[in-house]
Design a protein that fits this description.
Length: about 200
């Protein structure tokens, strides 16, 4: 199965005035524990119970080794290791640094070379026919769209903006906030699910 992707851009990348393009892939839903156990059971002589016990033991072994600062290697898969943060006051001398200034930030993974090469060989990309990027609208265009929507609907909310205007959540919220602040829209309803009405002078 091909991996769907889209090309997006960042304007004025790193303050250079240039536009930087990058590919964004659409990740599929990960397998559940039950699906993984069933898959492994169908591929070898292990039962689901065997797989569950093995994964549990592997997890405990990883926790023990990583907690002692060791890298952890799973044959033919790759290496796991810790990354840490240093939260030391700026005015504190380095020789006065304490152990409690250091905390675990994340667990890094570096794939085994053979695994990475095999994944590269198996991957196929296909440009998506849809996009997650918000459509760009001027204030005038957005106001006309909102007025048109409210001519046949009592109110509008964030979800309606996303569906009907091709916006992402952040963009929809920013437009609703903007038109509320300048007095075009009136916000009502619960804080976690507000709805918006057109003020009478704007109708």
């Amino acid at each position: 199965m091909s991996i769907k992707y889209e090309i997006q851009s960042i304007k004025n990348s790193q303050g250079t005035g240039k536009e930087r393009h990058f590919a964004r892939i659409f990740e599929g839903t990960p397998m559940s524990a039950q699906q993984l156990e069933s898959y492994i059971q169908s591929s070898c002589s292990l039962t689901k119970g065997d797989v569950e016990a093995t994964l549990s033991a592997l997890r405990e072994c990883m926790i023990q080794h990583l907690s002692h600062g060791n890298r952890f290697y799973i044959p033919s898969i790759g290496y796991f290791s810790l990354s840490v943060n240093l939260n030391m006051p700026e005015d504190k001398p380095i020789d006065k640094a304490r152990a409690d200034y250091i905390s675990v930030r994340n667990i890094n993974f570096r794939p085994d070379t053979s695994m990475l090469q095999e994944v590269k060989r198996n991957v196929h990309f296909e440009r998506a026919k849809f996009s997650t990027k918000s459509k760009e609208h001027t204030e005038e265009m957005m106001l006309e769209k909102i007025k048109e929507y409210l001519s046949t609907n009592i109110c509008i909310n964030r979800r309606a903006m996303e569906i009907h205007f091709g916006l992402r959540q952040n963009s929809a919220l920013k437009w609703l906030k903007h038109f509320t602040e300048i007095g075009v829209l009136r916000k009502e309803g619960a804080r976690n699910s507000p709805v918006y009405f057109m003020n009478k002078q704007e109708i």
